[in-house]
């Protein structure tokens, strides 16, 4: 990880009792072979609600971040099998991604 590295912070709430499945699906999705996908990532569980996941994803550079988030499938709302699996686990009545905020690292260990 390095200063100015682009990333995305996401908060996702699973359907009741489906937190473990959400974490498993998100973990597996990080190994899908996308050359523009995150190169560093952390999945964290809320201490207050086991069905809430915080994801911190960091990308190689701004260009790979832009390519990843501007893919035609994402722009047209078409989800691949892995993303559809996650969408199916998201709590009913909530937005697919409760929080989705692009970030850049200022400093890191």
Automatic annotation (TrEMBL):
Keywords of the record: Monooxygenase, Oxidoreductase
Domain ABM: 9-77
GO molecular function: monooxygenase activity
Gene3D superfamilies: 3.30.70.100
A matching Pfam family: ABM
InterPro entries linked to this entry: ABM_dom, Dimeric_a/b-barrel
Sections of the chain in a coiled coil: none
Protein name, as recorded: Quinol monooxygenase YgiN
Organism per entry: Streptoalloteichus tenebrarius (strain ATCC 17920 / DSM 40477 / JCM 4838 / CBS 697.72 / NBRC 16177 / NCIMB 11028 / NRRL B-12390 / A12253. 1 / ISP 5477) (Streptomyces tenebrarius)
């Amino acid at each position: 990880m390095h200063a100015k590295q682009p990333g995305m912070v996401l908060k996702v709430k699973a359907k009741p009792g489906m937190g473990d499945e959400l974490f498993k699906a998100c973990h597996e999705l990080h190994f899908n072979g996308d050359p523009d996908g995150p190169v560093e990532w952390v999945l964290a569980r809320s201490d207050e609600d086991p069905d809430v996941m915080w994801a911190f994803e960091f990308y190689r550079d701004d260009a790979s971040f832009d390519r990843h988030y501007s893919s035609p499938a994402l722009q047209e709302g078409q989800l691949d099998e892995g993303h559809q699996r996650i969408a199916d686990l998201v709590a009913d009545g909530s937005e697919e991604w409760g929080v989705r905020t692009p970030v850049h690292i200022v400093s890191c260990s």
